[in-house]
Write a structure and sequence with these properties.
The complex is a heterodimer. By secondary structure, chain A is α+β, with helices and mostly antiparallel strands. Chain A folds into 2 domains: 207 residues, Cytochrome Bc1 Complex, Chain A, domain 1, CATH 3.30.830.10; 190 residues, Metalloenzyme, LuxS/M16 peptidase-like (Cytochrome Bc1 Complex, Chain A, domain 1), CATH 3.30.830.10. Chain A has 16 helices and 12 strands. In chain A, the strands form 2 sheets. Chain A has a 6-stranded mixed sheet. In chain A, strands 9-10-8-11-7-12 form a 6-stranded mixed sheet, with helices on both faces. The N and C termini of chain A lie far apart (58 Å). Helix content of chain B is 42%, strand content 19%. Chain B contains 16 helices and 12 strands. Chain B is globular and about 65 Å long. In chain B, 54% of the residues are buried. The chains are: A alpha+beta, B alpha+beta. At the A-B interface, helix 1, helix 3, helix 5, helix 11 and strand 9 of A face helix 2, strand 6, helix 3, helix 4 and helix 10 of B.
Chain lengths: 441, 437
């Protein structure tokens, strides 16, 4: 190992910023509608991601679960094809065609060999415009959904996720499970499904991004042919209201006998267009965002061995932003872990971060950016999200400069703004042995 | 949004081998190197695979292989605890590590200009990790918390652990990769040090790199850092074998932490290294029988008989000796697991006598082989496929010939090998039952 001092040479900061740019083309395919494309011919495959602004958040009262039910039913038979035929043709031609929903969006994920692009679009078109919603399939999927909803009252992780949502989003459509409400599922009829499609899948709320072996003109041709029909005259805009609820400083406990308690927390977040978004992003990375040296991992896992996993993240819904995180720890350590999380948050609030922490975080965030683009599917996802964030195609050239310009002072300011002891709640699922002042739920 | 650092894996799903063009070299000290060029981004996925996993642990010391994986990040003569990861991170790299029954792997995804740095670090910790009592005891707590998160708090993981311990009566595959709780608690520094010294050596490791680099460059760097490390005496791997199994076993796990009953049936079947043609046939057959949306089980249980909400089968070919052919079924509300089991037994008897359709077989083979193209659409996949296969006894040629070999599977092969799978004396049936409150 005599050559080991070599490492020191490498440690000299070497920024490969300029290599990160993606060559993104913005192509107009119909009226004012554009698609983003990264053309890459290294493999004969294409990934295309679509999103309609039509997630479970717009499910009507009494019909919670409609959006998700549709996403599960579109490939269960369409046009003249039965569910079985439909899925078999896709499988035999190695076409991945997935539909899914979040609270804000209705997603389509298409991943196919170049030679099957035509067939892929034909089937996507059938699914979106001529789904059969055969009673037999509808009932089958409904019973699957109800079973999954039952699980959210039994499975520890699912209970955590449900209660977390119910506390954070109380009184807002986001408080419901994407799957819906069990009692509503049976009330959703074929007409509801058809109305949802007709009213909410529209070209004016559609975003598309592609990556792979497809030319600009080909992509344009397919999109125009199959998506022109989503230009609908009747404008129904289903708006999800802003969620303005202030988080209260409470500790909630759901008592359940478990080997380990699950701890989740949430506090104030930040919107994507806030001038302090990047300082917040870098701050979260340093605090608990990723990697092995986040402050939370160092203090709670590395120094004390109290957890296997502890993390934090900034989360954005269309109508609400929050800062959140969690940990899992033995029941006897819950109090300790919560205390350290709070301390670390408050330390950053009061003192900010050190110059070295900031430098290390920037080095990682800037130099690792290019690694995100290693597959067509990832590239298409990133293009889609960037587009939906309201950014331009030149974002990919600028992104590392945004990170690089974050200062210690910026982080201090944003930490002081969003890390607020009086606006953070903790939720515990388990049977901690050493906690006081708890709101049982 | 949870993330996991340094983990255990049951398996990497291996849906595809490849039309990859591997470049290959072996250093004088036995270190094997495989390079898969991929110039999509200026980056490399660098990995090192040690041919040692939980199946190689001494009796009574389950969990050592995985514990050691954690300790590999705790410093060397030259690096402080955690410094390895810190260097990777500030150089813009992503990293992780994983332990399976047959191998332990470490990987970094990083800009290609950092390959030499990474390889120098990886060479350093092949022989020079520093094991300190304090770090050891602290990490033991972390590993125990990992066990509680992954297994003890998770009824389906607990069921799998129980089934696995019953499926293998004598082979070390019966042990959980993460280890039994009481044995993890009793591990000491000496145990781990001994294990590390015995198995971490250039002649027991494979470097697999997928990315924007060629073999010559890699060999040059490898010689510089790994070339100086002396090989160790590594015994040929051998394991206690399974005896003839004479009776089916049944495991019922009841849990208050689930609402969904699950039916599992595991059959003990050969791995690829034990019976090549048979294993390839099972890979094809598991797609025909078990694809979760187009397979025969789905058709029968979900669509025709309306007994289940899902039904699938999976075969994992890697390893030494025997492996598992697994059927999973989730019943519909108000259908009992006994009803599922009784119908499955009847159905499998029919399958044993079934004549397969040639046209269907062609289509399924095409699906499987098509996946080789998709497998090249990321740096990780090639690295995983070559690393996991080479460390479980496949030759390089067997990996690259895999699509051709799959294509050779015939109706006659299906007729020959399928009936062998469903031998009830070599099976474990698992029930996961919710406790109704």
């Amino acid at each position: 190992m005599k050559n080991f001092f070599f490492i020191l040479l490498f440690l000299i900061f070497n920024n490969f910023n300029n290599l990160n740019a993606l060559d993104v083309k913005e192509i107009n395919y119909y009226k004012d509608k554009n698609v983003w494309l990264v053309n890459d011919n290294s493999l004969p495959i294409v990934a295309i991601k679509f999103a309609f602004k039509a997630g479970s958040g717009i499910d009507l009262k009494g019909k919670k679960g409609t959006a998700n039910l549709i996403s599960s039913l579109l490939d269960e038979g369409a046009g003249d094809y039965s569910a079985r035929e439909f899925k078999k043709i896709l499988a035999d031609n190695s076409i991945t065609l997935n539909f899914s929903v979040s609270h804000d969006n209705f997603y389509i994920d298409l991943y196919t060999l170049k030679k099957n692009l035509g067939l892929s679009f034909q089937f996507l078109d059938l699914a979106l415009t001529k789904p059969t919603f055969k009673l037999e399939e509808v009932n089958r999927i409904k019973s699957n959904v109800k079973l999954a909803l039952e699980q959210s009252y039994k499975d520890p992780d699912e209970i955590s996720a449900r209660l977390f949502r119910e506390i954070l989003f109380e009184g807002h459509p986001y408080e419901y499970d994407i799957l819906g409400v069990s009692e509503d599922i049976d009330k959703i009829n074929k007409e509801d499904l058809e109305n949802f499609l007709e009213n909410n899948l529209r070209i004016d709320n559609l975003y598309i991004a592609a990556s792979g072996d497809i030319s600009e003109s080909e992509l344009k041709k397919y999109l125009k042919k199959y998506f022109k029909k989503f230009d609908k005259k009747k404008k129904i805009i289903s708006n999800i209201p802003e969620h303005k609820k202030k988080i209260e400083p409470k500790i909630f406990l759901h008592k359940k006998y478990l080997r380990q308690s699950n701890i989740l927390f949430a506090g104030k977040g930040i919107s994507r267009d806030d001038p302090y978004f990047y300082p917040a992003y870098v701050m979260n990375y340093i605090l608990g965002g990723g990697g092995f040296f986040s402050k939370l991992t160092t203090e709670i896992r590395e120094k004390k061995g109290l957890v296997y996993s502890v993390y934090s993240y900034l989360y954005r819904y269309d109508k609400y932003n929050f800062f959140s995180g969690g940990a899992e720890t033995s029941n006897k350590n819950v109090d300790k872990v919560i205390k350290i999380i709070k301390e670390e948050l408050m330390k950053v609030k009061k003192k900010g971060v050190t110059e070295e922490e900031l430098k290390n975080a920037k080095n990682y965030l800037i130099n690792s950016y290019v690694l995100r683009f290693d597959s067509n599917r990832k590239v298409a996802s990133i293009l889609l999200n960037t587009q939906m964030d309201g950014l331009n195609t030149d974002f990919f050239e600028k992104r590392n400069d945004y990170i690089n310009s974050v200062s210690l002072e910026d982080i201090k300011k944003i930490a002081n703004r969003i890390l607020d002891e009086n606006q953070i709640f903790f939720l515990i699922i388990g049977n901690p042995s050493d906690l006081k002042n708890i709101n049982k739920i | 949004m949870k993330f996991f650092l340094f983990f255990i894996i049951i398996f990497f799903s291996k849906f595809a081998f490849a039309e990859f063009k591997p470049q290959h070299h072996i250093l004088e000290n036995g270190l094997e190197i495989v390079v898969l060029e991929n110039n999509r981004i200026p980056a490399v996925a660098h990995s090192i695979w040690y041919k040692v996993g939980s199946a190689d642990e001494p009796n009574g010391k389950s969990g050592i292989a995985h514990f050691l994986e954690h300790l590999m990040f705790k410093g060397t003569d030259k690096l402080k605890p955690g410094e390895f990861s810190q260097i990777v991170s500030i150089n813009g790299g992503k990293e992780n590590a994983f332990t399976s029954k047959n191998y332990t792997g470490y990987f970094q995804l990083i800009h290609k200009s950092k390959l030499e740095l990474i390889m120098s670090l990886e060479a350093d910790r092949m022989k020079n990790i520093k094991l300190i009592e304090k770090e050891f005891e602290n990490e033991k707590k972390v590993v125990l918390e990992e066990r509680y998160s992954r297994v003890d708090n998770n009824p389906s993981a607990l069921l799998s652990e129980q089934i696995n311990a019953a499926l293998y009566m004598n082979h070390p595959y019966k042990k959980p990769i993460i280890g039994w709780e009481h044995e993890i608690k009793n591990l000491n520094l000496g145990d781990v040090t001994k294990f590390y010294k015995k198995y971490y050596a250039p002649n027991n490791a494979i470097i697999v790199i997928c990315g924007d680099v060629n073999l010559d460059e890699v060999v040059k760097i490898a010689k510089k850092y790994f070339g100086v490390i002396k090989p160790s005496k590594i015994d040929k791997r051998s394991w206690t074998l399974e005896p003839t199994q004479h009776a089916p076993r049944k495991i019922t796990l009841t849990s208050k932490d689930t609402a969904i009953p699950v039916f599992k049936r595991h059959y003990l079947v050969p791995t690829y290294t034990k019976s090549k043609k048979e294993s390839l046939t099972l890979e094809v057959f598991s797609e025909i029988l078990g694809n979760p949306s187009t397979g025969m089980l789905f058709e029968e249980f979900v669509k025709n008989k309306k007994l289940a909400t899902s039904a699938s089968a999976y075969y994992y070919p890697d390893g030494f000796g025997d492996t598992s052919f697994t059927i999973s079924i989730i019943p519909k509300k108000n259908i009992s697991l006994e009803e599922i089991e009784s119908h499955l037994n009847k159905y499998l008897n029919k399958i044993k006598k079934k004549t397969f359709n040639k046209n269907e077989l062609q289509k399924v083979k095409k699906r499987i082989v098509n996946n080789t193209i998709f497998a090249q659409d990321s740096l990780y996949m090639g690295m995983r496929i070559f690393g996991s296969s080479l460390s479980t006894g496949y030759s390089l040629k067997e990996i690259t010939n895999w699509p051709k070999d799959i294509d050779l599977i015939s109706i006659a092969d299906l007729q020959t090998f399928v009936p062998n799978i469903f031998n009830k004396n070599k099976s474990v049936t698992g029930y996961l039952l919710p406790i109704e409150k």
